[in-house]
Records
---
Amino acid sequence: MRPTLKIFYHSLVARFYDVAMRKVERLCLSHWRAELLSDLTGDVLEIGAGTGVNLQHYPQKINRLVLCEPDPSMRKHLELKMQNFQLGCSEVRSCAAESLDAAEGSFDYLVSTLVFCSVSDLQQSMKEALRVLKPGGRLILMEHVAADKNSRLHFWQHLWQPLWKRLACNCHLTRQTGSLLEDAGFKLYLREEIMRGAPSIAAPMIIGYAVRPHEVGSL
C-alpha cells in the first residue's frame, strides 16, 4: 500500500473504529474491560491505546496514567476523548509497544487490550513490557489469539490471515500470545473466552494478567 493511501486508510479506520466495534463492545468487550481495569492502582501504562476505549473503565484512584499510541490518526481521537475524563495525572505518548518511552521498572501495571495481535514485533513488545514493569507488576491482557492448532478454525485463520492483515492494519489471527508471554518470563493467570459478535476467525480470546517475576533474565 502506498504511503499516502496507507495514511488515508488509517485515518478512516480511526474515524469509524468505535462504530465498527460497538456491537462487540456491548456483547462482551466492555464487560471484560471493566473487569480488568476497575481495580487498578498506582502507575499505569497502556500500549496501543487507540481511540481511548479503555478510558471510561479506569478508576480515579490511579496515581498516574500514560497512554501510548503510535498512530497519529488514532492518537488524535484519543486526545479528544481524554478531554471528557478526569483521570488526574494522565498523558499521551506517541511511542510504539516495541520501544516504550519509559524507564525500567517504572510502572505497576501495563495494559494491552487487542494490541499484541497487531504489533510489528511481538517478542520485542513483550521484552519492553517486562522492562518497564516493576518486579511483581502485572501485564493486563485482553487479546484475540490463534485457535487450537488441530482445529478447523486454525486452518481458516491461516487461510484468511494475509488478507485480514491488510484490511485490519497488521492484525494477525494466528499469534500464540500466551505461550510467547510465558517464554518471555511472565507468570500467567489467563482464561480463554470467545469474543461474541466477532468473526469466528478472530473470536478466540485470552483474558487476565501476567506477572513480571521479581527475578528475570537479562532484559
Note: Strands lie at 42-46, 62-68, 89-93, 107-113, 133-144, 187-194, 204-211.
---
Amino acid sequence: VSYQNLIPGKEYTLTGTLMDKETKKPLEVDGKPITAQTTFTPEKADGNVELSFTFDASALRGKTIVVFESVSYKEKEIAVHADIDDHEQSIYFPEIKTTAKDAHTASNLSLAGKEVTLVDTVTYKNLLPGKEYVMTGTLMDKETGEAVVIDDKKVTAETTFTPETAEGTVDVQFTLDGSTLAGKTVVVFESVSYEGKEFAVHADLKDDGQTIYFPEIKTTAKDN
C-alpha cells in the first residue's frame, strides 16, 4: 500500500479485506471473511507498507478477488481504497479443465499401437489476455497413480500459447509408442504456468473426461 500525507511518528492501523468481484461481497472461507491487519508508524509523510493475507484458497479456482484497504488512526478511518474494478487491486485464480481423446478414434478409446496420438483439449478460465503461458501435460497410469514411462522417459507434452481472451481452449498433443499400454487406462494431468511458476492444475485420476482407455483382447482357437 502506497500512502501520502500521513503524519510522521503517529501510529496507524492498515486493514485489508478480500472481496469477491462477482458478488461484490467479502470473500468468506469456512464462513469467515478474509481480513488482515498491521500497525505501522511512518517516518515520513509518504511511503509504503505491506499487508499479508494467508488463507485456504483451494475453493477459489476461476474466481477473481479484489483487495480493499483502509487506514485508521485512533480507531477512526481516515483513508480508503476500495475499487472493485481496479486491476491493480485484483488477484486472478485461473481454472482449467480437460477433455482427452485419441486423434484416430475421436473418442477416449485408443488402439495400443506403435504410433498413438492423443489430443487433450484444455478449457481455461481467468487467464490474463496477452500473456504467454505454458500448458504442460503428463500421462498417468490410473492403476498405479504414477506417471506413464515409455523407453525410460515420462510421457509429457507441452504447448505455449498467448490467449486473446480470459476464457478459451488450447490443445496439448501427445505422440507416443502405445504398444505396451494394452489393457491399461491412462489419465491426462495438466498444469498451466506463467514465467516458470505453476498456478493452475487439473489432476484427477477419477475424471472420465481426462481418461483414455486402451482395450486388450486375447483369443484361443480350437477345431470344433
Note: Residues 112 and 180 are 7 Å apart (CA to CA).
---
Amino acid sequence: MQIDAKGLTYVYNQKSPFASKALDGVDLTIREGEFFGIIGHTGSGKSTFVQHLNALIRLTGGRLKVGEYDLADKKCNFLELRSKVGMVFQYPEYQLFAETVEQDVAFGLKNFRKDLDKEGVQSAVREALETVGLNWQEVKDASPFELSGGQKRRVAIEGVIVTKPEILILDEPAAGLDPLGKQELMQLLHDIHGGWCKTIVIVSHDMDEIAENCTRAAVFSAGKVAMCGTPAEIFRRSEELLALGLDIPVTVKCAQLLREKGFELETDFTCDDFVKKVLALREEEAHHAE
C-alpha cells in the first residue's frame, strides 16, 4: 500500500478566531516497503499529517490515497482502512485500560475481526505477545498495570499490531526508553518490517534514530514538507536543519569536526558506516605516514 498526499491542508478551529493552519499543501509519497521517518519540531504538522493516514483526522483539503483507499471518497471503508493502517501514539502504555493483558491486546482485534471466534482471538493474541518477546503464559492473566515500563510499552504496541496492519505508524516510539530499551524496540520494528507489516512510518525528533533506521525521511516545517530524501541526503543539509530549529545526528557533528581538520568523509551517517570509514581513513593516514 503506497501513501500519496497531494496538496494536503488542514486547519484547526476553522472559521473561528483561533484558526490555526497545521498543514499547508503537503505533497508526499511514502512507497510500500519503506521504513520512513517524519521529522519536525513541535507545531510543524508532522503529527497532524500521520493522523490523516488512517482517518483519525478526516480529510478537509487536498487529496490523500492509502493503497486503494481514497480518503476523499465518502464511501471509503474507514474501518477496513484502520485495520490495515495501525497507529501507535506517543507513550502508548498510558492507554492501557483492561483488567488483563490478554483483554487489552484483544480489544482492537475484536473490533476489526468480528469473524474470529474465541479460540481465533486467543491464538492471534498469543502469537502477537510472543512476537514482542513476552511469555504468553506468564503475562496473559496479569494486570497490564503491574508490568515493567518496557513490558507495558510492548503490550500497548501489541494491541495495535495484533491485527497485522500493512502499514504501522508510530509517534515517538522510543520516547522515555533507556538506550537498551530503544535498541530492543527498534529491533522489534525491523523484525516485523517486510513481513506482514510492509511499511513502517516513525515520527521522531531523535535524529540518530532516523539516521540508523530509516530508508527515507521527510522534514516538516510550518505545515509543509521542507525536504525529503534518504537520511544521508537530508543530514548533508545540516545548516538548513539547524536553521529550522532541529538537531543533527552525532555522526554528522563528528564528520563536521573531521572536515574542519581537513578530513573529508563519505558516510551515510549510521554509526556502523561512520566507524568503518573513520578506521579506513586512519589506516590510509598511517600508510601515508610510512
Note: The mean pLDDT is 89.
---
Amino acid sequence: NQQLVRERSDVRDVTFFQGFPYSDVSFAGASVTAVAETAEAAQRAARKAAEYAWSRRQDFLIPLNSAEQAMDLALQAEYPVVINESSDNPGGGAPGDGTYLLREMLRRNLPGSAYGYIYDPQVVRQAVAAGVGACIDCLLGARQDAFHGTPVELKGAYVKTISDGRY
C-alpha cells in the first residue's frame, strides 16, 4: 500500500483487510479501504490494491493438518501444546461443538492432556441431573451440523463439578 500512496500524490492511504475466512456471512471477506483527495482516486487505488491481493491469493493458503497429523506433531514437542479447532470458532458463528480433535485425543488415550470445551446443553442438563460425582453415558457434541464431526459416545463420563462459571 505504501507504493500506491507514493505513486499518487492524491492518495493518502490504502489498507488491505484479510477478513475472516470462517465466517458464515459473505460480507466478512477480504476488503480494501483507500483514502484519497477524490472518490475516483480512492476507487482506483482500492481496485489496484484488491487486484494485487487477488493475484497473490495462493500465497495466503496454508496446508492444514488433520486431527491425526496435529496430534502427531504435538506429541513430538517437548513443551505444552495447544491445538485449536479454528474452523469451529463460536466468535465467528460456528457452534463450538466440534468433535474431531476430541475423538482423536480419546482414541490415543493421552494421559495429562485436556480438552477445552464442547458446547452441548443437552449433556450439561444430563450432568446436572446426575450430580457431582456421578458417572453418565452420553453422546457429546456435533449436534448443530455435520461439518464439525459426529457425536462422541462416552461411557461412564465422570461429573467432576457443576458451576455457574464464576470463580
Note: The longest strand covers residues 11-17.
